[in-house]
Amino acid sequence: MAFQAEAGNHPSFEDMQVLVSREKERPKFPEAWKENSLAVRSLKETMEDCWDQDAEARLTAQCSEERMAELLLIWDRTKSVSPTVNPMTTTLQNERNLSHSRRGPKVSPYP
Predict the structure, then answer these.
(1) How many whole angstroms separate alpha carbon 33 and alpha carbon 97?
(2) Which end of the chain has fewer beta carbons closer than 10 Å to its terminal beta carbon, N or C?
(3) Range scoring the smallest mean pLDDT among 20-24, 30-34, 67-71
(4) CA–CA separation, 50 and 45 (whole Å)
(5) C-alpha separations of 26 from 1, 2, 21, 47, 75 in Å
């Protein structure tokens, strides 16, 4: 759970206010989010952009909604390419397959 290590299991509103507003803490991302997945990276970036300390740089609700719609398209594309048994490598392999398919099929000069 977000902030569990910093604030315990049942933090008060005031505890969270101090942690987020004064100490500028943000939730830590799981190690699995560091994989080379375009969808996961985009989600993480969107979340971080929503939390920007500079209000002018922070994403608007409309921009967030647009990014989430794009994210769903990316996620659907990567899920439907070629599933594997290991879910940690599925996204990376699917992205590789997508990048190869964008270039077109390889045609052998031999019959």
Answers:
(1) 20
(2) C
(3) 30-34
(4) 9
(5) 12, 8, 10, 10, 25
Which of helix, strand or coil describes residue 56? coil
Closest Cα to residue 88, out of 28, 27, 31, 29?
Answer: 31
Cα 99 to Cα 97: distance, rounded to the nearest angstrom: 5
Q: Distance between CA 11 and CA 31 in Å, rounded?
A: 24
Sign of torsion, CA 62 65 67 70? negative
pLDDT of residue 102: 45
Averaged pLDDT of the chain: 77
CB 83 within 8 Å of CB 97: no
CB atoms within 10 A of CB 40: 20
Q: Is the pTM of this model over 0.90?
A: no
Burial class (CB in 10 A: 0-12, 13-18, 19+), 26: middle
Q: Where are the domains of the chain?
A: 1-34, 35-76
